[in-house]
Amino acid sequence: MASSKLTALPFVIAFFIFNGLFTLSLAKSSPLALTQIKQQKQEQEEPFVGFNLGTDVSNILSATDLVSFLKAQKITHIRLYDADPDILKALAKTKIRVIISVPNNQLLAIGSSNATAASWIGRNVVAYYPQTLITAIAVGDEVLTTVPSSAPLLLPAIQSLYSALVAANLHNQIKISTPHAASIILDPFPPSQSFFNQSWSSVMLPLLQFLSRTGSPLMMNLYPYYVFMQNKGVVPLDNALFKPLTPSKEMVDPNTLLHYTNVLDAMIDAAYFSMKNLNVTDVVVLVTESGWPSKGDSKEPYATIDYADTYNSNLIKHVLDRSGTPLHPELTSSVYLYELFNEDLRSPPISEAHWGLFYGNSTPVYLLHVSGSGTFLANDTTNQTYCIATDGVDSKTLQAALDWACGPGRANCSEIQPGESCYQPNNVKNHASYAFDSYYQNEGKAAGSCDFKGVAMITTTDPSKLFSDILVLLSLVTNETWDLYSL
């Protein structure tokens, strides 16, 4: 989860070799491209992008409204950090697939008692499946690195839950695994030299053997954002953001001669090599968390809307392009973006509350640019978005933003002057919304052009059309003719 992302490991990137030192072609085969993984790829569904759904959100949507929102956005996969009964019930008879989770604080009870595990499966799985499409159970979250004292209970909890699934004859439909932080992998670059922290060998080896036996994925939380932040000057920003690179700037693994154009692929391949070192070659990687924050304090200058938009948009395209990784071009990992909503109730640093694509009320924080990726994410409505003043902002603050927009911002404010068509209603919020939108449109709806120090937000509802609709309703109700000057 977000607060534990800071456990991202210190990276030693010895294989970022530039200026054409390595121009050899990609190795065309690798010892890990095995029949088992290819077969699993054929059996699994097409790679997808899902969303993590945290609930530390003020004014969060009701479960029913949430599901309606997911459907409107064409979101087909979500991951919950618990097994919220209201959400699971609301998901019934939809095509939305969900990973449910066992919180870390429940590991002790489930790992110590088969009866407790069976009760958990009955209460949170059997009660909803198959009307609600539960696809997997995530047991704990980054247990080895955040609550190491619970590590001895992790595999027993997984095995007990699996036995309960077998008893319910659901073990072939629902997989069980546990999400790990990237820091369980040591010496991750170059990927071919990667290995799991040997302190956890007593857990990782039997866990991987279980995943292999049951056809379950290795769940990994992978954040190129933290790799970049901890290695500025070594890891180029473009590598973290999936930006196109010249061959001289690609990362080259000197042992395999594989070329890496982005950090995430290198992190995924590091997991595959780490498994290979334990003689496990038939488990696929599922990225259960990845993302980029849109706002941070002075210590996180790269936490911006622009970079968040770039990373998440390019990540979505990368997954949906089905290009795999340099080591496994035949196998593309699905990814759950962290996260759907800004969790504004989370503790500092500031970035912790700004990983979402949407605010809790479902308005977008920023608009992804994923055109060409089918109907996924209805919020990619680049030609149908507007900028308006946020509710609850005091008039003095709004007036200052309005003055800037009409002055240095060069917004067209002529229509909100006295006697002009948009002067009424004569209040600061209405005038500010008009000016904000004028500036936003003039800037080509660029990322960050609808902010005004936090007093503006993007909406997909045309504010002028909404206001016209209100006037029509007033006319119908009162049998009077209403116009702007009537208010």
UniProtKB/TrEMBL annotation:
Membrane topology listed for this record: Lipid-anchor; GPI-anchor
EC number: 3.2.1.39
Alphabetically ordered keywords of this record: Cell membrane, Disulfide bond, Glycoprotein, Glycosidase, GPI-anchor, Hydrolase, Lipoprotein, Membrane, Plant defense, Signal
Localization of this protein: Cell membrane
Entry-linked InterPro entries: GH, Glyco_hydro_17, Glyco_hydro_17_plant, X8
Main location: membrane
GO cellular component: plasma membrane; plasmodesma; side of membrane
Protein name, as recorded: glucan endo-1,3-beta-D-glucosidase
Organism annotation: Turnera subulata
